[in-house]
Specification:
Elements: H1 3-22, H2 30-46, H3 60-73, H4 77-84, H5 88-91, H6 97-104, H7 106-122, H8 131-141, H9 147-162, H10 169-190, H11 193-207, H12 209-243, E1 248-254, H13 257-267, E2 278-284, H14 291-305, E3 314-315, E4 328-333, E5 339-346, H15 347-355, H16 357-362, H17 372-384, H18 391-403, E6 406-410, E7 416-420, H19 425-432, H20 434-438, E8 440-445, E9 448-450, E10 462-466, H21 476-479, H22 483-514, H23 521-530, H24 536-545, H25 550-561, H26 563-584, E11 595-597, E12 606-608, E13 620-624, E14 630-634, H27 640-646, E15 651-656, E16 664-673, H28 678-689, E17 693-702, E18 705-714, H29 717-728, E19 733-738
Parallel strand pairs: 2-5, 12-14
Antiparallel strand pairs: 1-2, 3-4, 4-5, 6-7, 8-9, 8-10, 11-15, 13-14, 13-15, 16-18, 16-19, 17-18
Helix pairs in contact: 1-3, 2-4, 3-4, 3-9, 4-7, 6-7, 7-8, 7-9, 8-18, 9-10, 9-11, 10-11, 10-18, 10-27, 11-12, 12-13, 12-14, 19-22, 22-24
Length: 739
């Protein structure tokens, strides 16, 4: 770089730093500014020799992260300083945590230490099991050190996602999958809704770029029309709001690209068919004493002019979400008969919705009850500290609770409890206390006796009936949905299985002695293989509960005496099985291999996964399984995010190269209005015009509507698309989608 370039860059760094001080949400004192200045100088020194992949000086990254922390999340000077320093210890040999503590004090050092640990976790080499899920668990453990660690990590991830263009495609995909799988749900749970939306949209940009760009362009095209619609809507209610002397602003908020995509997939509709693509937000000024009263006043004004949907009222003012979110949401029929979501919030509520944790603390009154976020962290600690839980299972369960919507139910004494939507009476029992959950015999909801699987609804009053003799059984896992309840039940069942296994081992020793067989490592392995089990504990447990009885053990003893014959028989039967499988199996995986894998474009054996049934032309990737070789999944497979995030080291790039001779199974679903000759029209297009084979076809009609499922054999994706387009044109057909 020339001296002129260096001078220019230094000017840009100084400008970025000054902007950081300007945009801070909290008012910075002189001491705050001194702290931030010192952190900035240490960060500049620590990263002086570093550059990012894009070529710019590395220091721009910590400044950008600090800016997100200061402006979008609204944290204090301590957090801004920690954000500036978040990579210094990891990247610079000149600084250690002790130095940070000496320069900036204990709090900043704790936060930087937590962030350094998280970064070093993600750099560990992946080995035979998924470290990503285990790292996530360890990352959550830092919540207890200081919640700001996770918040700054989320800001760090947001800036990385915003500046990922210079990376390799496979790297982009891995980081984006991890973001959608872990960081977006975490941002949601901590109440950082704006950041959650940005993370989701950027995640989609790199996991499904074509879909992302298509929706983005369509949103841009319809922006003018939406602005006009918001204006029309606002005009109708402005007079009434002004009469009440309210100070307010009305804003339109387009739905995020990610949520529009989610709706399109869930409802099987096109972009134009997604009706509520935006929400209208009314933000009003008020004193704390009149805040609730004014929210309901605005609600009544809006519903005077527009008919509300009674099922879609969401009152998070009387019962705020556990993230601290407060608002009234109503869905009304707006101009031109369109459904519009109206969100009513005070300025305070709006700040909490946008800044989450930071604004919540700004408005927290002295002597208020324990904060919801702290409450959540304390509950989380229990789940985290159970080392026996499989890490990937833990992440899956945890995510269920992260993203779930909430319901509010009452205890018999009138105390309000928040549970995830879909929670059962058994979940409620474990929510009260683990001991109550373990001894649950039944439950009463609103005075009526209900099963443990009963799904609760907001407003229910729940009374748990317990018994000293009650204990968890495997069926309970079908009834429990929350991570807390499931982890407690699983660990109780494991203890029970161990106890029965120990008893079973002694029973087995006695029974084998009668058959003149010694219980040792060899005989245990033989028994495990003979009964097709996985572990010796499974064997002892089955003997303990009596599913392996005397007669079965005698059969084992007689087969053991003629081991050679058994060995030969198994060889023969194995061969015959393989032949039978080959006859049943499509020739896809053997004769006509049209997929190539990796950078070298190698031809390898693979299987097509059943969860998404890819066909030629679909964008796909290979996943190296433990026992079934390479399995091929579509890029938008429901399991893709989890696989990319947890097992990135097992992902292989895959590409179709020649699919002209192959045929693949695809399933389509058709719905519409029934009329005579409709099935004939459908089959004529499929078999006659398109020369596509149908494997199976089933139609049902109900009240003049029909729905049908058809399994087809097609050569590639473009042929299937052509067929779907032709079927959509048949009179009476409403939707044709690939399942």
């Amino acid at each position: 770089m020339t001296e002129e370039d260096i001078e220019k860059e230094n000017g840009a760094i100084t400008k970025a730093y000054k902007e950081l001080l300007k945009v801070s949400y909290t008012t910075l004192t002189d001491d705050d500014k001194k702290l931030i200045r010192k952190a900035f100088e240490v960060a500049v020194d620590g990263h002086k020799d570093q550059r990012r992949k894009s070529g710019e000086a590395y220091i721009f990254h910590p400044i950008a992260v600090a800016k997100i922390v200061a402006q979008e999340i609204g944290l204090d000077a301590t957090s801004i300083a920690a954000a500036l320093l978040h990579d210094v210890v990891e990247d610079s040999p000149d600084y250690e945590i002790k130095d940070i503590e000496n320069l900036f004090g204990k709090t900043v050092a704790t936060i930087v230490d937590g962030l350094t640990k998280i970064s070093s976790l993600s750099k560990e080499k992946d080995i035979g099991v998924s470290l990503q899920a285990e790292n996530f668990r360890k990352m959550l453990l830092t919540l207890n050190d200081d919640v700001r660690v996770i918040i700054i990590k989320i800001a760090d991830r947001l800036h990385n996602m915003q500046t990922m263009d210079a990376m390799r495609t496979d790297k982009q995909e891995k980081i984006a999958s991890e973001t959608l799988y872990i960081y977006a749900p975490l941002a949601h749970r901590i109440g950082l809704y704006n950041i959650k939306t940005q993370l989701e949209d950027l995640g989609l940009k790199y996991t499904e770029p074509e879909v992302y760009n298509d929706i983005l362009n369509k949103i841009k095209e319809s922006k003018e029309e939406q602005d006009l619609y918001i204006e029309q809507f606002s005009e109708v209610i402005k007079n009434s709001l002004n009469k009440e002397n309210l100070e307010y602003t009305i804003k339109g908020r387009p739905k995020s690209i990610f949520s529009i995509r989610k709706k399109m997939v869930k409802q099987g509709v096109s972009f134009d068919e997604v009706y509520d693509k935006f929400a209208i937000r009314i933000i009003y000024k008020s004193e704390p004493a009149t805040e609730k009263f004014l929210a309901w006043k605005i609600y009544s004004i809006v519903t005077d002019h527009f008919r509300p949907n009674p099922v879609r009222l969401r009152d998070w003012i009387s019962s705020p979400k556990s993230t601290g979110y407060e608002a009234l949401h109503i869905t009304v029929v707006g101009p031109k008969g369109r459904w519009v979501e109206v969100q009513i919030r005070s300025e305070r509520m709006n700040e909490i919705a946008e800044k989450g944790y930071a604004a919540h603390y700004k408005y927290k009154q002295d002597g208020e009850k324990e904060d919801n976020l702290e409450n959540w962290i304390n509950k989380l600690q229990e789940a985290l500290e159970n080392p026996e839980t499989n890490a990937v299972d833990f992440v899956e369960q945890f995510k269920l609770n992260l993203y779930s919507k909430e319901i509010f139910v009452f205890t018999p004494t009138g105390e309000l409890k928040s549970l995830p939507k879909g929670a059962t009476s058994l979940d409620f029992a474990f929510n009260i206390h683990t001991e109550v959950g373990m001894k649950t015999r039944g439950a009463k909801v609103n005075g009526k006796l209900v099963p443990l699987s009963h799904v609760l609804e907001s407003g229910d009053q729940v009374d748990i009936l317990t018994s000293e003799t009650a204990k968890p059984n495997p069926n309970w896992l079908d009834y429990a949905t929350t991570a807390r309840a499931r982890s407690k039940i699983k660990s109780a069942l494991r203890e029970d299985k161990k106890r029965l296994g120990e008893e079973g081992k002694e029973i087995l020793r006695r029974k084998l002695k009668q058959l003149k067989i010694t219980l040792n490592e060899t005989s245990i392995n033989e028994l495990v293989n003979y009964f097709k089990l996985k572990t010796s504990l499974d064997l002892f447990y089955r003997v303990g509960i009596g599913t392996i009885d005397n007669a079965m053990l005698k059969d084992y003893a007689s087969s053991r005496s003629n081991a050679l014959m058994t060995y030969i028989k198994s060889k023969i039967s194995r061969k015959s099985n393989i032949k039978k499988e080959d006859l049943e199996k499509d020739e896809i995986t053997t004769n006509y291999d049209s997929l190539v894998f990796g950078r070298e474009k190698e031809k390898l054996d693979y299987k097509l996964s059943n969860c998404c049934n890819p066909i030629p032309g679909d964008e796909v990737f290979g996943f190296l399984t433990v026992s079934e070789g390479i399995k091929v999944h579509k890029k938008n497979c429901p399991n893709a995010l989890s696989l990319h995030s947890n097992y990135a080291y097992r992902i292989m790039t895959a590409q179709w190269v020649d699919s002209s001779q192959q045929e693949f199974l695809a399933q389509i679903k058709i719905t519409g209005i029934d009329h005579i000759g409709l099935v004939n029209d459908i089959t004529k297009i499929i078999s006659g015009n398109m020369h596509v084979n149908m494997k199976s076809i089933s139609f049902e009609t109900d009240g003049g509507l029909f729905s049908g499922n058809i399994n087809l054999v097609v050569k590639n994706n473009s042929m299937l698309k052509k067929l779907l387009d032709k079927l959509k044109k048949i009179n009476g057909i409403d939707k044709v989608i690939r399942v």
